[in-house]
Every structure is written in C-alpha cells, then in structure tokens.
C-alpha cells in the first residue's frame, strides 16, 4: 500500500473531471505537494467551468476542452476516471510513451493503510456495500463507505483514521485498471450480462470483475456466490475462500457442517459455519484495529463445535425482499463475521437496515396499488431478480438506453401470469418489444415515464404492484438512474396527494 516514489513523478495527469477525477486531484494536492497536478476533461460546459474554480484555488491546473497529446509531456503518471474508456486517445498515447496508467481506486489505495472490504458483481453492489456499512456502524465499530456509491475513495485519502474499516463498491470500470490494488476482503456477488457497450465482450467484462482477487494473499479473504455458475470459475490470487449460498443448505443437509467456510440459508433461516470462518479469517483478524476485537471462540463456556452451524437470523425478519437481496445479506453476513462481529450484531444490523433508494424502494400506495422504484435495475439480470420479489399483479415498466444486452430471457420471465402488463419507454422500447414478439407476448408503448405510470394506474387493481425496473440505462432521457427514480417517486407522491 506504499505511496513511495509518487512524490518523484514530477507531473500527474488526471483524465476525466467527474466525481472521481476531482477527488483524485484534491487528494494529490494534499498528499503530493511537490507534484504538479493537471486535471483534464473534454467538457467545456458552464458546469465544468464552475467546478474548475475551487480546483484551481487548491493548486490544480485545470484543462477543459483538451485531449491533445501535449498534456502528457513531462508526466510520470496518468490516473483515469472510471468513465473514461480505454480507447481514449490520451490513454493510448500514454501507453505508447510508457507512462503508467492507474485507475482512481488504485491511486487512492496507495495512500490508505486501512482494512478494506471491496464489493463487486453485476448487481447488488450498492445494497451490499451500504448494508455492510450499516451493520458495522450499528455495532459501534468505525467504518466508512465509499467507491462507486456515494463518495469517491480518493476523497478519504488523508481524511480518515487508520482504524476505520473501508467498505468500497467497485465497478468493472474501476477494477480494469488494477495494478497492485489488494482488498483485505473481496466480495463477488454475481456475474451476468452488462456493460457490453463498454467492454469488448462478455468474457472481458467478467475478467475485469475477477481482477478484484488477483493481488490477494493467503491472509486475505475472497467471498464468492456458490449459486452463480459464472462465479464458479478459476479465481486469481491466493486468498482464503468463503462461500455463500441461498440453496446449498436445503440441497445439502450438511451444508456448513463439513468445515468448509460457508454462510447459507436452510429452511428460511440464515446460518453460518463459524468454525470454518474463524480459521479462514485468522490472518485478517490479526490485522484488525482493537475496536474490531474478534468474536470470542466459545459458546456457553464450551469450545465451538467445528461440525456445527450457527443461527444468524430468520430471513423473514429482514425488511429486504427478493432472492437477490438474500444473496446480498448472505455476503454481508459472511464479511462481518470474518471481521469479528458476533451473530447477534450481524442479525441486528440486517433487521434494522431499511434498504437503499432506487432499489426495490416502496414509494407508496395509491388506491390499494403499491408503487415500487427499482430505477437502479439498469440491466436485464437486475430486472429478472426484481420480479422474484412479487407473486402477482405486476405492472412492469421497462426501457431506457440499451447496454448491449439481450432481452429474450426477460421477455420470457415477464410473460409469466404474475405479470399483468408490460409498459415500454425510451430508446430501447423497440428492441425489447422485438423479444416479446418472438414469444407472442404483448406490450404497451408509452412516450415517457409519466405516460407509463398513468397507463399502469388506469389498469392496476388493489393488491397489484407497479414496478419500475427498467433493465436499461437512463441516459436517453435522464442524467442518471437516480434522476429517473426521483421522477418516478415524484409522480407517485403527486398521485398520493391527489388521492387524499
């Protein structure tokens, strides 16, 4: 994790003036006072100009509307924001000149001696990251949440105590630029089709995700979804393996009782093989701050039976819904138990966690119909998992900008009788409709989200659910999925006010 040598690079070029780029530039000014810091972006809009002013005041040289190779002259390091594609002309030129190119996470990690839990996967990253932060925080231990959700990791550089555990959401765009980045705990939730508009193919996307493990050592931990076939592939690195599963406990009565580190569900109850987890996490727990003093390895005065599993909680006690959220809870429980939290602390944190905005967020009820904001479901797999949370009367709103994914599986799932109607919006509407046509399924077209909600309200009956789970990016009509979700929430609140 050493940052040695960075103060000798002379000039640092940061490409991309988004949240991560700005945080990197400010971190560099704090930690590398003798290095010239340049932040470049091809954006020239007034918003970018306004953001440039405080950066310039901090000593950052800001270059707007430039992508010429002269920016690389004299540079000893380039740091790219996650949104900058690998095909950027500046990045290609940097590689040609032999200038190292790092991602923002790689740069930040070099300055952070903290224990770090990295969370990746196609879906569930935000929920799992926030859930981990909530459980740990509720236990009274110091913790910060950062990464692809909320604040950029670089914003914590020089601003956090060493005894704070960092929980970091990591996208494929952040992981593809790994050099030495090594999380103490790395979580892989799932792998499914996504971001094919950015990655060359599905294997390239999966490979980027797997890089979270590549620098781990035996005293580190990798937590992997046993149920996901795409996750059961050769795992790089040398970390101790811990598995989680929502099906192994029912399929194998001895699950968690064979010494294999496993957190699992059996007959609706989340359980864990604590003996195996203690062995796997021994190296990690020896490095934890005193505040994380590990779980005592005795129960009722007796040494824990290595062939037994321990009750964590009944899944019904959680406020979260759907199989995907069960996966998120299993993964978070595994990480927290490896960090030394007790089963009781893990259970209390899961029970009190309210969920995250824009992910199966129940907005309200109008005339007996429940409206659910799942705007964060920006790919097919996320929408498929959202459908598992409801049993009948679903009015499904799909559409936006496609990310290169295939919609045939979603069309098949949405043809189930529990889905009352499918309403399409946005650029991807014709593409999604074509998948339904192959199955003989019917869809309704709407001009925009407001029209879609109005259509659903006219046909929905008491007890039904109107579910915005788009399976697409939002960039055709919105700045991001948050803005799309906020629009849906406002529409529902307007209806609630009118119904009073």
Give a verbal description of the structure:
The longest helix is centred in the last third of the chain and has 19 residues. The protein is built from 17 helices and 22 strands. It starts with 10 loop residues before the first strand and ends with a helix. It has 500 residues and is of the alpha/beta class.
In summary, what is this structure?
The protein is of the alpha/beta class.
Shape: globular
**Assembly state (oligomeric):** single chain
Main pleated sheet: 9 strands, mixed
Instruction: Please name the fourth-level CATH homologous superfamily of the largest domain.
Output: Mur-like, catalytic domain
Distance between the termini: 57 Å
Features:
single chain, 500 residues, alpha/beta, Rossmann fold, Protein-Tyrosine Phosphatase, Chain A, nine-stranded mixed beta sheet, 17 helices
List the helices and strands and how they pair.
Elements lengths: L10 E5 L3 H13 L4 E6 L4 H12 L3 E4 L12 E4 L8 H9 L3 E3 H6 L6 E5 L4 H14 L4 E5 L17 E5 L2 H4 L9 E4 L13 H9 L10 E5 L14 E6 L2 H4 L10 E5 L2 E4 L1 H7 L1 H4 L12 E2 L2 E2 L6 E5 L8 H16 L4 H10 L8 E6 L2 E5 L6 H8 L6 E6 L8 H7 L4 E7 L3 H11 L4 E2 L3 H11 L5 E4 L12 H19 L1
Parallel strand pairs: 1-2, 1-4, 2-3, 4-5, 6-8, 6-9, 7-8, 9-10, 10-11, 11-12, 18-22, 19-20, 19-22, 20-21
Antiparallel strand pairs: 12-13, 13-16, 14-15, 17-18
Helix pairs in contact: 5-11, 5-12, 11-12, 13-14, 14-15
